[in-house]
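WARN no homologs supplied; continuing
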Amino acid sequence: MNIYKGRLKRWNEDKGFGFIESNSDKKDTFIHISALKRMGRRPVEGDIIEYEIHIGNDGKKRAVNAKIEGATEIKPRLKQTNTKHYKKSNNLLSKLMPIILFIIIVVIYFNNFKTQQLPTSLVDPITENSSNLNNYSNRATYSCNGKTHCSEMSSCEEATFYQNNCSGTRMDGDGDGIPCERQLCGW
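OK structure emitted
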């Protein structure tokens, strides 16, 4: 991709976006704070920005992979793991996974079976709506087990659970709080 350079003409700190003025383009380029995620400080008007251009599905261009000239770049820290321990635990996990999945499926099945078999006279009025019970049992099956991308999710509900409850997810590219908009949660 081409690297462009321009001056930050306007910046809205409260909303986290602004516009870059470039000598090579007559129209200003939109930039969101997420394009500057490796920078050691927030941008200010007048900063010189180096960036790449991405054209969205809507045909609008925006700056991506941007850097503030002269600002410190933060390098992500990589975790050092003991590879022997990792291989052993990964091997154990792969052996236990079918058993764990089987148990989860059995619990869900019997949970749904129980709620469908209760006579209406014995149903608690608070939990009378069986769809609420089914939704609760589905939520209870999600746990933070390393999934981080939309391609690993099977539903919008699962993606929302992971985004709200698990660290390290990468499912909200535009930062609007809705995960996997193109794949699962699009309206």
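Residues 163 and 177 are 9 Å apart (CA to CA).
OK
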